[in-house]
Amino acid sequence: MSKNWKIVFNPFERYPERDLAIAGIIGLLLSILLFWWAKQTNDGVYHVSPRANVSLAGAITEAVVCTLLVGILLSGLGKAINPRTRVIDILNATLIHRIPLTLGILVLQLPFIKAAMDQIMQAVKGNRIETLPGSTLWISTVVSLLMLAFFVYAVVLLVNGFRTAVHARKAIHYVLFAAALILAEVIYRMLLYPLLLTF
Amino acid sequence: MKLPIYCPSCEHALNVSQLQCEVCATAVSGNYELPFYLKLSREEQDFIMDFFLASGSIKEMSKQAGISYPTMRNKMDDMIEKIKKMTS
After folding, report:
1. Ranges for the DUF2089 domain (chain B) (predicted)?
2. Does B29 touch chain A if contact means CB atoms closer than 8 Å?
């Protein structure tokens, strides 16, 4: 793999922690503003839904809780695998990996994509999917593939960040990594998100 | 010129069989094991030298090499593991 592509998929190998932290925090702030403006809510660590009454404080809390939850679980796992793992390296990976997910939400706000999505929602509600024009279906297919690509890129970033921070080399490390992400999703959906809704 | 440390035909570690004085050409023959440092690859020797010159600071080394701290620390861990295997 060329050096440039390596940087795209594993910036953690090259850039110092300060630069990564700055990029990650800027990404987090932009995602908060985007979620608030686009009226979206993180009802799962890796799931987003529209919510009409999202406040700025709510968007901040959701973004911070999601990031910290994944960061804390992966830091704990990292320290168990390699005691020399630094929390800052794991937190940077957690922050940076959310940037492609934020870009995905941004793409969904493009007017023609939003219109196509609304059209599909209305058709599903009215039970008349067969009336949807071909162009709408094409847009939804391309957008779905794009969202999948953003999600895969985000996971690749998180895996590479974790691998670099922890020096993970065994298959069991990656199995535990996947288990930690599933646990984060379960904790957030079952315990934290219902709590956040009460604020 | 690069000092060969492994046999090019069977890849076993090489020993020193002759040393010679550059001035009078006196030669000493025998079967001497290479010092431990010379058994490492050139890159590994350079890594140890850089670590020494950076006063043992991995952070400083990573800055000089233009890579992140964990990447440099991982390289160090790999080397420690290799040296431990070689000495055990």
Report:
1. 7-35, 40-84
2. no
